[in-house]
Amino acid sequence: MGRFAPSPTGDLHLGSLYTAAASYLDARAHGGRWLVRMEDVDRTREVPGAAAGVLGTLESFGFEWDGEIVRQAERDAHYSAALEALEARGLTFECTCSRLMLAEEERYPGSCRMRAPQPGIASAIRLKVNPREVQFIDRIQGACRQDVALAVGDVILRRRDRLFSYLLAVVVDDAAQGVTHVVRGADLLDSTPRQIYLQQELGLPTPIYAHVPVLVEADGGKLSKSARSVRLDPGQVMAQLMHVFALLGLDPPSAIGDSGIAAAWAWAKGRWDANRVASRQTLHLEG
Length: 287
Known about the structure:
This protein is of the alpha/beta class. It has 8 helices and 12 strands. The protein folds into 2 domains: 2-73 and 229-278, Rossmann fold; 76-169, Rossmann fold (3-Layer(aba) Sandwich). It has helices at residues 14-29, 50-60, 76-88, 148-151, 166-176, 192-202, 237-247, 261-271; strands spanning 2-4, 34-38, 70-71, 92-95, 124-127, 133-138, 142-147, 155-158, 181-185, 208-212, 214-216, 282-284. Helix 1 (14-29) links the parallel strand 1 (2-4) and strand 2.
């Protein structure tokens, strides 16, 4: 079971299509189901109409998902239950530190870990992270390890504005939806040990991970932040799909581009192999 989990903060771009295609092909090539989940846990960043636009774009490129669309904004009760389970075991604490207060810290220094709660002051809820090396084998990037306590310290589960963190939401949702394989961009590689740590604390299963390289400009700039136009063109669906297949190491022959969307996807599913994907964390586009 795989999934694609976009944030409805704007239009999909070439990098989004590339990541979605990798996830989709990996699930379908192995006879698995593929889900779409809207990661809108942070309501402050959502752009009105973006979720519908994302789904429309996926449909125009021939993606077919299974089941209903899950929206994190509707799942606060599930996140609350997970947080309460951790609190009951004494694994959380309130933190009143602001981003400004921590701006010069490389990791959270544990300022509020032993401090009594301060009524009337907005506080986040952090997980007590103890020294423990988390190890996993990424199907593309290879062996990875991180001591979460040394890398980032105690992580936030609920923010000072009372919105739940992406970390808590993604861990709870992957388990609830039965996701077994996660294929996503390597910009999230460092956060994976933190997710695994939280999975272990909650007694939840750990998916198998594969992190594809992040597409960047020739000068190294992040694609989604560049001045270059990266919007997907509904009039160039096949050309852009062939470009993505090439970036994923599938080497599509020119004839595939003339065969229609369904036939192109069928060809790509038969050729998919995660070992064809470049085993590095960024992939530069030609200028």
